[in-house]
Amino acid sequence: MTPTYTIFAVGKGHMILVQFSNGVNMLVDCRRSGNWPSPLAHLKSKIQTLDVVVITHPHQDHLTGLQEVCEWYRPRQIWHNGRYFRPDPVYDDWSYYERLRNGKISFCTPVRVQEGYTTTIGDSQIYVAGPTTPNLQGTADDENNNGIILAIATSNSKVVLTGDTEMEQWNAINLTPLANASVFLASHHGREDGYCKRALDVIEPQRIIISDGKPAATDATAKYDRVAPVSTTRNGSVVVRASQVAARA
Description:
17% helix, single chain, alpha/beta
């Protein structure tokens, strides 16, 4: 039984719920947008428990609503990229994230994940393709380019979830574990700086999902559409079972 993935409509940001076959629920990123239900309201419509929170990188469009979600669900783990990044101005959800990341919240164990980290949840094998060790420095955006990239493989399906990976991170990581994906979440909300033809030639997704609001001036949806069928969250959340799009052998 493959997981169910819900890519919530949250405007320009990411918020993905992964419901595994054994009942474990994982949230990848969190985003509050005034045009859509709150992250907690989104989740209450789907689940009663939340076990793992993954923050691909601590930018505001991947982090807001985190405190409310965690205080309601009390997840057992938070996965983080291990980097310290201080926003300007500082805001409450970032401060809460730092407390989680540093083990200051008693119910939640922080787990630093980097390239090569693997674990099993239910019938799924999870591989972390990024960030690299050592972290990338001196890129166009170091926080984007040290984000967590997940490949979740279940039976004959594979789903690749990115944060805001840009060209430098795509060029630095080992792409082979991401190959032959059933579903690919486009990096950086479908913008040009997240689009990498070399990576897509290896990943070869059968379906692409873009988590975005109103398209940016640098929107690359048309390019992605030439690779595989594209769905976006611009008009509502997207729900998919990876078994509906089996990976190529």
